[in-house]
Amino acid sequence: MSRGDLEKAETALNMARDLYDNSRPGESTTWRAQLEQTASQITAARGDYQLAFSQYEKFHQEYIKAKKYEDLELIESANLVQQIEQEKQKALQLEKENEAFNELFKAQNAAQESQSLYSKLLVLLVLLTLSTIVIILLLLRKSHKTNKLYLDAKEKAELHSRLKTEFISNISHEIRTPLNAIIGFGQVLIDKMQDRENKKLTRRIVSSSQMLLQLINDLLDFAKIEAGKFELELESHNLKKSVSNLADIFYEQASLKGLSLRFNIDKTLPKYLVFDELRLKQVLANLISNAIKFSDAGNIEIGIGVEHIEGNICTLKVWVKDEGIGLSQSQQDHLFSPFTQAESSTARKYGGTGLGLNISNNLLALMNSSLNVESEKGSGATFSFTLRLAVGDEKEEKRSPSSASAPAHIQFKKCRILLAEDNDINVEVIRSLLSNTNAVIERVENGIQALEALSDASYDLILMDIQMPQMDGYEASRIIRRERNIKTPIIALTANAMQHDIEESKKAGMNAHISKPIERVKLIEVLSSYLG
Question: Are strands 372-375 and 313-322 parallel, antiparallel or unpaired?
């Protein structure tokens, strides 16, 4: 139309109408109405104004109609959009609720899973608890059986130990009684004999009997150590003098075999040290006795060396060295076992119980020490041990009775001694040992007779045997002390030489304990302390 080509414009208009009507049949829009406006403009351009006006009115009506329709559509679209938005909001809310429900569902599922797991764990825990209870019950039952077996075994062991101790004690008592006569009469004969050869033979009888007594003492010591009832008596002693006294004991025994005893004692050794003199001498006596027993020639050296002194403690090395048969390494491995010697042929040839070294080692253990051995077969042996002893004082020195210190003959002021002893031989031994002491001895045979004698007369001292018929020495002593309140010294004379026998004597009220066989020196020493 802008170019003035109205034919082409009308052709284009008709094409637009057909395209619209074909694609959107029966639909009235303002755009379709505007096509009619364009038709009225083409007609007006041709000069036909009446037709153009008619076309314009048509346009106007269609336009108004289409406009209303479009406005209605717009309203409906707006409502639809609003409705869609509302639906969208509802969908979102529903989605949130759905998510919340899903979360709740998940939580519920998790809770159910947890509950299920908890239930399983609870069941497992219950099963474990029941299993544990069953196991505990089984263990308790087994423990009860074990405890019963243990108690039975302990009871049997204690019974065995008690029976063994009683057996050893009884055997000791039975052997000591005849030994008391042999050693006692032997001591009396030695004092009375003038013939040197007979005196020498009698000394050998006494010496052999004392060796037998030492074997019995070894058995008693072994029983006490095994029972854990062994205690040391620590006192201040002159160690050099204590060791030198051993020469008197073993000199004759060594001389008979052509052996020489040599003492090598450190000059810096303190004069007084605190130790159990009896037990240390017992250890050395065992070592010296073995050295003599297993040597046929050469020297036996007894040595004490001071390693160092620190403060009030002196550390010593003690040894006994011989040139005897020696020991192989295999023999040394079981040397300290009880009732064991190097080999069976040794026991047959040299004798002995095999207890000496075991007891010595156990005694040293109480002194915080132990035996060491250096030896080769055929080249002798050196037994040694180390001691840490406190330095003592002369004022504290414990003087023990010995043949060197006790008087050979003593005269008491005329005194009366009541002897309660049922064995006639023991009575003769005691009378012989005290024959030159000016003591008057009156003998009764049991505790009842002793009580009767005390009712009729007074005595300066009572020698009380322990094992007597009708009433033993313990019971008699208890009555004398507790019921009659008699203060006369009571000395126990008994073959019961174990520690519990000594303790029992003290509990019964006895003042001292002398074990059989009775040594004259020991007897006079004890009597002197009470009779003056």
Answer: unpaired
Q: What is the pLDDT of residues 112-166, one digit of tens each?
A: 888 888 888 888 888 888 888 888 888 888 888 888 888 888 777 667 666 666 6
pLDDT grade, residue 400 (50/70/90)?
very low
Label residue 520 by pLDDT band (50, 70, 90): confident
3-state class (DSSP) for residue 94: helix
The pTM for the full model equals 0.49
Whether residue 42 contacts residue 1, with contact meaning beta carbons closer than 8 Å, is answered with yes
Alpha helices in 232-350 (DSSP H): 239-256, 277-293, 329-333, 344-350
Helix, strand or coil, per DSSP, at residue 310: strand
Conformation bin of residue 378: beta by default, left when phi > 0, alpha when psi is -120 to 50: left
DSSP 399-433: PPP-TTTS-SS--PPSEEEEEE-S-HHHHHHHHHH
Burial of 140 (0-12, 13-18, 19+ CB in 10 A): exposed
Q: What 3-state class would DSSP assign to 475?
A: helix
Residue 365 has a CB neighbour count (10 Å cut-off) of 12
Contacts for 147 with CB less than 8 Å, ≥ 6 apart? none
CB 51, CB 39: distance < 8 Å? no
23 burial level (CB within 10 Å; 0-12, 13-18, 19+): exposed
Structure token pair of residue 202 = 């009698």
Torsion on CA atoms 463, 468, 474, 476, rounded to nearest 10: -70
Tell me which residue of 126, 465, 128 sits closest to 476, measured CA to CA. Answer: 465
Among all chains, which residue has been given the structure tokens 């153009």? 52
Q: Which helix (H) or strand (E) holds 177?
A: helix 49-192
Calpha distance 65→75 (Å, rounded): 15
Residues forming beta bridges with residue 418, ordered by sequence position: 442, 462
Strands 381-391 and 313-322: antiparallel
Q: CA 491, CA 512: separation in Å to the nearest integer?
A: 5
d(CA 32, CA 107): 61
Tokens of 340: 């064991």
CB 426 within 8 A of CB 516: yes
